Structures are given as structure tokens and as C-alpha cells.
Amino acid sequence: MTDQHREKPIPPSRRSSRTHEAVLKAAIELFEKSGYSRMTIDAIADRAGASKATIYRWWAGKGAILLEAFLSGVEADLAFPDSGTLREDLVAQVSALVDVLGQTNLGLMAVALLGEAQHDTQLAAAFRSGWLEPRRTVGRDVLFRATERGELRADLDLEVVLDGLYGPVYLRLLFGHGPLDRPTIETLVDQVLQGIATPERR
Hints:
The chain has nine helices and no strands. By secondary structure, it is mostly helical. It folds into two domains: 14-72, Homeodomain-like (Arc Repressor Mutant, subunit A); 76-194, Tetracycline Repressor, domain 2 (Orthogonal Bundle). Helix 4 packs parallel to helix 7 (121-148), helix 5 (86-103) crosses helix 6 (105-116) and helix 5 runs parallel beside helix 8. The N and C termini lie far apart (57 Å). The relative contact order is 0.10.
């Protein structure tokens, strides 16, 4: 079945909850057993006791299934804190992100999917809409409130600030060329803040 001939996936609110959870569980188990490239929709359907037709009505492909499994499993762990002190909030949030992506099975799955998304346009679009854009929206709101409190300069491009904070994290997760421990995260946050904080906050 080609992407061109698939119907638009059915939203989660209209799916059978039992079958829905069975498919997500089967996809995670098969990913952990075989990896992304070797897992198939046939295997997911067989393991979940669901039909391929049902799966294709609900998801665009195996990447979309795994992405939903990841998002539903980590959402609570990655809530952005808002204590009123930007540095502490950023260190806490980046640390939580590193813990999830670097030290959990769901996180390792997400990193693998991120690599696959570089040559799978459908998966890349799902990653942007389901993961990247919502998180950047929350991040912008946090930075905007810090600007209103006088912690950050008012002339900043917040999109570039977010890239400066999170780009190094994803780079190190993908290539593993340097540590992502607490001291590294604190150094990253402090160096970014040195460039964007108001003079009295530096």
C-alpha cells in the first residue's frame, strides 16, 4: 500500500483504546527487538492482533506509530518548569530532556527516529508537528516571560535562542562526541545566558 493511496489517518479520539494501546506496545517491543529498519507493519499487526488495514487507517506508517508511542510516554516527564528564575528552569528542563532521550528506551527510540527522519520526509513532518513545534511554542513562552521580568534583552530573536540552547543537545545525542552531564548542561545554559541576558543579570 503506497502513501499516495492511503486515506488520512483517523485521529486518536476515534480509535478503539484497546487496539490502539496494543499497536503502540507492539511497535515499541519490535523496535527494541529488531530496530527501526527491520520492523514492519505486518509484524506490528501480527503482534498486536490488529489488521494492517486498521493500522493504516490510524497511522501513516511505522514511524508515526513509534512517534506517538514516544510522545505519550514522555509528555509528563518533559513539562517545562516555570519557577520565575530562568536559569534554574532551563537547567532543569534541559536536564530532563537529556535524561529522557539519552537514558530511557523511549528516548533511544526517539533518537533513532530522528536519524531516520533525515531521509523520510513524512516522518520528519510528523516530528516537527508532534514534537518540535509544540515544545518550541512552550519554550518561546518561557523566554518571553523572562523578557517581561527583565532577565533577557528585549531585542532577541527567540527562535535563534532556542536553537542555541537545544541544538548542542541534539547534536551530542546524535553523534555522541561529548558528554551531556549536569556540569555540561549548566555550562551550556550559562554561556547562552551570557549572550542574551540584560547587563544587570550577567
